[in-house]
């Protein structure tokens, strides 16, 4: 009898585990459930990472460490939402001081002449319950071109530590640096630069 009970318990545990693993993962609330209003970027929980092909051998990554953003969110009519971003290009960081200095000179960003890059949204199109395409004007290296961010809403809720209402997003985009006059070493050094962005925005009280 004891052996039978042990076998039955083991079988029940196996079935329960299998059922648990078959349950769909929880999904974030749909965008329309997010509180509308003006949001400020939480700079301590935000990243802008870029990657570019290095002669075809590898993808070289860097980041910008000083930037700010403002978001006005209209959850009911997302097409009315607005996003503005300002990036201090002097904050480019590859963890290689020599390379950082080269990226800041006229071969690339030319930060003495063009110290900042800006993005201002011009169109927001919802593409799914938690996704949207945000198109805007990117001004970089003295030139302005349209760029589209592919955005995902990760979560919106009061922060468990601060109780401040927070909306968290991830985004990706690809820009052709040669369109902004940054042609050094192209195409051996990739002309397409991929941006990986993640940030938390706090609802202003």
UniProtKB/TrEMBL annotation:
Keywords: Signal
Keyword Repeat: no
Entry keyword Membrane: no
Signal sequence coordinates: 1-20
SUPFAM superfamilies: YceI-like
Domain Lipid/polyisoprenoid-binding YceI-like: 38-202
Protein name (record): YceI family protein
């Amino acid at each position: 009898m004891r052996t039978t009970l042990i076998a039955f318990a083991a079988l029940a545990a196996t079935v329960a585990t299998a059922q648990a693993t078959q349950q769909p993962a929880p999904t974030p609330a749909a965008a329309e459930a997010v509180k509308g209003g003006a949001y400020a970027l939480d700079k301590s929980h935000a990243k802008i990472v870029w990657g570019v092909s290095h002669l075809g051998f590898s993808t070289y990554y860097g980041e910008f460490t000083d930037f700010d953003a403002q978001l006005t969110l209209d959850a009911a009519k997302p097409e009315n939402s607005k996003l503005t971003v300002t990036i201090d290009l002097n904050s480019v960081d590859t963890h290689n001081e020599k390379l950082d200095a080269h990226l800041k000179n006229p071969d690339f960003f030319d930060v003495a002449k063009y110290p900042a890059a800006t993005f201002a949204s011009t169109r927001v199109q919802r593409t799914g319950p938690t996704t949207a395409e945000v198109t805007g004007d990117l001004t970089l290296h003295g030139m302005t071109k349209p760029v589209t961010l592919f955005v995902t809403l990760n979560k919106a809720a009061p922060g468990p530590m601060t109780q401040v209402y927070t909306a968290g997003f991830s985004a990706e985009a690809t820009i052709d640096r040669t369109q902004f006059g940054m042609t050094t070493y192209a195409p051996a050094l990739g002309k397409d630069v991929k941006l990986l962005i993640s940030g938390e925005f706090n609802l202003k009280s």
